[in-house]
Amino acid sequence: MTGDLNNQHALVTGAGQGIGEAIARQLLARGARVTVLGRRAEPLQKLVDEFPGQCRMELADVSSESEVKTAFSQAASALGAINILVNNAGQAQSAPFLKMDAALWQNMLAVNLTGAMLCMQQVLPAMVERGYGRIVNVASTAGLKGYAYVAAYCAAKHGVVGLTRALALEFASKGVTVNAVCPGYTETEIVRESIARVVAKTGRTPEQAMAEFVRGNPQGRLVQPREVADAVLWLCGPGAGAVTGQAIAVAGGEVM
Are 35 and 12 in contact (CB under 8 A)? Predict the structure, then answer.
């Protein structure tokens, strides 16, 4: 299926590492022109260097409306109208609910939920005008179930799933699909940092901490970024035109 996304311009947020990088690489391999967006230039530059002329970067904080507007305008000017948007940028912070402050709560909503909303607002008018578009929001199993000590993150990711479903209905007749992919614990920097925090706070070994993270996955392992990227890629392709409003778990059977 190499080349079936030729002439498509995809923009991937949070594309510097982990799931976002894997998604960008898959889109590039399928022939799409890809704008990789993030807050730090260094991790994005390696993709630009690896795919000259096909990949370019934009720097922006997705929670900033002005930065998002500027980045998306520049991306469209450089590579053409954005046909595919993958909202992958996100952060995870943990705290017992009674010790969680308003700043943590607002940060989780700003990055994980408001950021997705701002990015979708930038691409939807042109998608509607053309009668075609693909939007995939990378949510989490935390958008489908609850986890202790990450109440703000769960609330934000549930919001992403709800927003996905609402917009899927609003734009279903316009040729635009809006879906969410919900990974379980995935072998990314976020999970590695979480394991390090568990080790530091509890005195457990890294192996013991890892066992806690994989315990909920019936397959007994971490999901791989490429596995999430493959699900996203399918939703971005021509064969998924009848799929919209879905929240697809990529979690080894953790969520049914």
Answer: yes
1 falls within a domain = no
At residue 1, does pLDDT exceed 80? no
SS3 243: coil
* Residues 104-129 pLDDT 10s: 999 999 999 999 999 999 999 999 99
pTM higher than the cut 0.70 = yes
Q: Which of 137, 84, 139 is nearest to 108 (CA)?
A: 139
Asked whether the predicted pLDDT for residue 90 surpasses 60, the reply is yes
The one-character DSSP state at 216 is: T
In a domain, 255, yes or no: no
DSSP 8-state secondary structure symbol assigned to residue 53 = T
Both tokens assigned to 176: 């635009």
Token pair for residue 163?
Answer: 């927003």
Q: Number of folded domains in the chain?
A: 1
Which sequence positions are flagged as catalytic? Answer: 153
33-38 and 9-13 strand pairing: parallel
- Token pair 């005008």 is at which residue? 129
The position carrying tokens 């940028």 is 89
